[in-house]
Design goal:
Helices cover 73% and strands 0% of the residues. It is mainly alpha-helical. Helix 2 (21-45) packs antiparallel against helix 3 (49-58), helix 3 packs across helix 6 (93-105) and helix 5 packs antiparallel against helix 6 (93-105). The longest helix is centred in the N-terminal third of the chain and has 25 residues, at 21-45. The two termini are 19 Å apart.
Length: 136
């Protein structure tokens, strides 16, 4: 999980730089909630926990940091994640591809692609059903 911590530090560092306080708080709260939900899903479904949690960190990244339209945020977040993960030299190409594909597909809620994609979608949806001040 060292790779996850490095990615988390990067993502939350970028979120901390968001000037608008409400947007910054939303980015952190939502991402944390998705991270918590996907953790439970990954454990219960025997999925790669680290890859799932990295997906959670990047899934809405461009929406918050680049102010891109919602219709483009999944694709733009996947592109950013691909570039960043590649630059770290910490991941296999297959891991980067799997992470970025799940990020790019997470807005397509009615579709099933892979266990990682499904966990990402359900983690995102599940985050809306808990209060941000409740521990999971």
């Amino acid at each position: 999980m060292e790779r996850y911590q490095r990615i988390k530090d990067h993502v939350y560092g970028k979120f901390n730089a968001i000037y608008n306080e409400i947007l910054r708080a939303n980015a952190m709260t939502h991402t944390n909630a998705v991270d918590n939900c996907i953790t439970l899903l990954a454990i219960s479904r025997n999925l790669n926990l680290e890859l799932c949690k990295i997906c959670a960190l990047f899934h809405d990244f461009s929406q918050y940091t680049q102010n891109c339209p919602h219709s483009e945020h999944a694709r733009m977040s996947a592109i950013y994640a691909h570039n960043f993960l590649s630059e770290t030299n910490l991941f296999k190409i297959s891991e980067i591809d799997e992470i970025c594909y799940a990020i790019s597909q997470h807005s397509k809620k009615g579709q099933y692609d892979s266990p990682l994609c499904e966990a990402q979608r359900r983690g995102c949806v599940g985050s809306f059903f808990r209060r941000s001040d409740q521990a999971i």
